[in-house]
Amino acid sequence: MRDELKDYRSWGGLTARDSEIVGPEVWSAAPEAFRKPALAYGNGRSYGDSCLNDGGVLIAARQLGQILAFDRESGLITCEAGVLLDTILNHVVPHGWFLPVTPGTAFVTIAGALANDVHGKNHHRQGTFGRHVRAFELVRSDGSRLTCGPDMNCPFFTATIGGFGLTGLITQVTLQLLRVPSAEMRQEAIHFEGLDRFFEIAAESDATHDYTVAWVDSLADGPRFGRGVFFRANHASASDLPQERAPHPLPFPIKPPFPLINRLTLRGFNMLYRAAQPSTPEPRRIPYRPFFYPLDRVSNWNRAYGPKGLRQFQCAVPMAQAREAVEAMLRRTLAAGEASFLTVLKIFGEVPSPGMMSFPIAGATLTLDFPHRGERTLRLLDELDRIALSAGGRVNPYKDARMSPATFEASFPHWREFAGHVDPGFSSGFWRRVTGG
Ligand SMILES: Cc1cc2nc3c(=O)[nH]c(=O)nc-3n(C[C@H](O)[C@H](O)[C@H](O)COP(=O)(O)OP(=O)(O)OC[C@H]3O[C@@H](n4cnc5c(N)ncnc54)[C@H](O)[C@@H]3O)c2cc1C
C-alpha cells in the first residue's frame, strides 16, 4: 500500500507538506542519491514539527518493524527502529520484564523514544529512556553505519539520545528491560487541595514509590486553586491473576469541525474526573495499562481539539523556583481564559540524562495543552515560555510547534555543540525554525 502524505502528521495536528516519503531500506541503500535533507518519522506522537520535514525527505521508519532478539534471562531486547513500545510490552510482560521508562502512550516507536530521550512517571528513580539503551545502529547520510553505545562512538551516542532525529537514521536499538514481579500495579490516588500539598506529597513519595504523577484541575480558582489528584504506584507482587492483553483502542468516532474542549466542557470533565478518582486509603491493584496509558483507550483522541489541533506546552523548572513558577503559569492560564485539558505536574529527579540535548532537569515539570485558537493561544504560550525561562527553566522541543529561536537558545544554551553532530544531510521543521538553519 502506498503511503500518502496526509498520513504523516504530528499529534498536535500539523501535516507534512511537500515531503517525499521514502522507505528506510531505499534511503539507506543510497542516501547520497537524495538531494533534499532527510528526517526519520516514527509514529508521529511528537506534538509539533520536530517529526516533520516540509520540502524534504521523510523516512518511514515504522517499516523497520521486527523484534530481532530477546534474552529472557538478562532482559536485553534488540528491535528494529520502528517497533512500537506496545509491541515490546506484549512480547516481554508475560516473561516478567517491562520497559524501564515509558511515556504516557505505548504507541511510540523505540527509536522515537530514543531520539527524544523520553521520560516517564519514574523519572525520579530511573531517569530517561536513553539511560537504558545499551546500543543502537546509526546510518549517516554519507552511507556510513555506526554502532553506538555508552562505550562505542560515544559522541554520536550522546548526541543521538535526545538528538531529535537529526544525527542520522537509527535502524535498530538494544534496550535493557526492567524485571517486574507481575503485570499489575499497586496504585494510590490522593486528592490534594493546593500546590503546597502537591509538593509535600511528591517529596514524601519520592523514596517510597517508583511512579508518581499528578493531574491538576486547571480551571479551579479561588480557594480551590491548584487542586488535583496525585497518583503514585509500585509494581505489584506476583499473583495468580491472568496476564492482561492489550485492550483494543476505541476509535474517536468523529472529526468535529470545532474544538470540543472549551471552558464549559472542561469544567464538567474535571468534575467527573476528580469524582472518578476516589482517594484510596489502601493501594488498589490494577493492570499496568490503565495506570501507564489511560489515554490509549481512545485512539485519535486528539481529534476532540477540532481541525486546528492542539498546542502542548511542557516546561521543566529547577526545584528552588518550582512552586512559584508553577503557580504563575497556572494563574496566567486562568487569566487568559484558556482551558487546558491535560494538566500534568511531576517532579523530575536528579538522575543525569545521557543525551546532550535531553529535556529533563531536576525540578518540576508542568504540561498543559490547549485547543489551537490562533493568536490568543500563541500569545499565552509565549507568556508561559517567559515564566519558565525567568525561573531558570526550559521548554520541551518535542511537545512544541512554535517556540522562538531565543527561547530555544535560553533552554539549551549549549545547542551549538550539539549542532556539530547533526548530520549535514538531515533537518526538520523544528530545527530550521529554531536555528534558522
Ligand atoms: C498521549 C501522549 C503522551 C505522551 N507522554 C509523554 C511522556 O510522558 N513523556 C515523554 O517524554 N513524551 C511523551 N509523549 C511524547 C512522545 O513520547 C515522543 O514525542 C516520542 O518521541 C514519539 O515517538 P514516535 O515514535 O511517535 O516518533 P515521532 O514523533 O515520529 O518522531 C520523534 C523523533 O524521533 C525521530 N525518529 C523517529 N524514528 C527515528 C529513527 N528511526 N531514526 C532516527 N530518528 C528517529 C524523529 O525524527 C523525531 O525527531 C507523549 C505523546 C503523546 C501523544
What does this protein look like?
The protein is built from 13 helices and 20 strands. The protein has 437 residues and is an alpha+beta fold. It has a domain of 202 residues: FAD-linked oxidases, C-terminal domain (Vanillyl-alcohol Oxidase, Chain A, domain 3), CATH 3.40.462.10. α9 packs antiparallel against α10. The chain is globular and about 60 Å long. It starts with 19 loop residues before the first strand and ends with a helix. The chain binds flavin-adenine dinucleotide. Flavin-adenine dinucleotide binds next to β2, α3 and β9.
List strands and helices in order, with pairings.
Blueprint: E1 20-22, H1 24-29, E2 38-41, E3 57-60, E4 67-71, E5 76-80, H2 85-92, E6 97-98, H3 110-115, H4 123-126, E7 133-139, E8 145-148, H5 154-160, E9 169-176, E10 178-179, E11 184-192, H6 195-206, E12 211-216, E13 228-235, E14 250-251, H7 263-275, E15 284-287, H8 288-292, E16 298-299, E17 310-317, H9 319-335, E18 344-348, E19 363-371, H10 375-390, E20 394-395, H11 405-411, H12 415-419, H13 429-435
Parallel strand pairs: 1-3, 2-3, 14-16
Antiparallel strand pairs: 4-5, 5-9, 6-10, 7-8, 7-9, 11-13, 11-15, 12-13, 12-18, 17-19, 17-20, 18-19
Helix pairs in contact: 9-10
The structure holds flavin-adenine dinucleotide (FAD).
